[in-house]
Amino acid sequence: MRRWSTDRILGWAAADFVVLVFALFPVLWIVMLSFKSPATVTDGSFIPNEWSTENYSSIFNGNSPFLDALRNSFGIAAIATVIAVVLASMAAYAIARLNFPGKAIMLGAALMIAMFPPISIVGPLYNMWRNLGLYDTWPGLIIPYLTFALPLAIYTLTAFFREIPWELEQAAQVDGATPFQAFRKIIVPLAAPGVATTAILVFIFCWNDFVFAVSLTSTSAAQTVPAALSQFTGVSQFTAPYGSIAAAAVIVTIPIIILVLFFQRRIVAGLTAGAVKG
């Protein structure tokens, strides 16, 4: 292996530092803004002159819509993730295990749908959901989330299922297990890392969605955090709620940061699964 020179290492380290500062500066700005008092939130300084947790206490009081939005975000994202992972596991197993016509086309269509711009179907969905009574409800968000999360989960899980040695399943069936028992007791445990990775990716997709959340909801009955943030109001019409929005943005980002820090290697593996054929 060729050794890198000291100058080259220092150059790459300097470039990484610049990119890191550039990427983290908006995040640090939001964090600092969230700790400013309402009187100093627009003073233009980066570091607060007086540190305050008033913005955090304001979004957690009983009159704030943030708690309802947080509950909706957790509930809707969790339900959509469970449904998508269960259905995608069975579909990915069939694609990876069975030989049938159109399998490659089906997998390609799943990837295409996952990449489809959500904004293109918001208009028809809005009218359809109003007529069906799904507007401003949890199912009204879960269904469109599944439209995009399910193909993504199928594509990701198929890559994981293809790595499983199928001789283990055949050995279980030789020992008397039914096909479903072999799938449940042999294949599913072996695919657990891939299922967990897919669940994380789907949860992050649902958690971060703004387009559907702001277009298909209007009240705290189903409004998620991204939509609620866009409708935050100040104490009066002359007060901008910058501090409250910053505090809410910090709170809603923490679960994603925790997931990424703990599962970053599995997330990268899920995103690159199938990219290289052995």
From TrEMBL:
Membrane topology type: Multi-pass membrane protein
Principal subcellular localization: membrane
UniProt-listed PROSITE patterns: ABC_TM1
One CC-aspect GO term: plasma membrane
Transmembrane segments: 12-35, 74-95, 107-129, 141-161, 182-205, 242-263
Cellular localisation: Cell membrane
Entries under InterPro entries matching the protein: BP-dep_ABC_trans_perm, MetI-like, MetI-like_sf
Record's keyword terms, sorted: Cell membrane, Membrane, Transmembrane, Transmembrane helix, Transport
Source taxon at top rank: Bacteria
Any one Pfam family match given in the protein's UniProt record, by short name: BPD_transp_1
GO biological process: transmembrane transport
Domain ABC transmembrane type-1: 70-263
Protein family membership: Belongs to the binding-protein-dependent transport system permease family.
Protein name: Trehalose transport system permease protein SugB
Organism expressing this protein natively: Capillimicrobium parvum
Gene: sugB
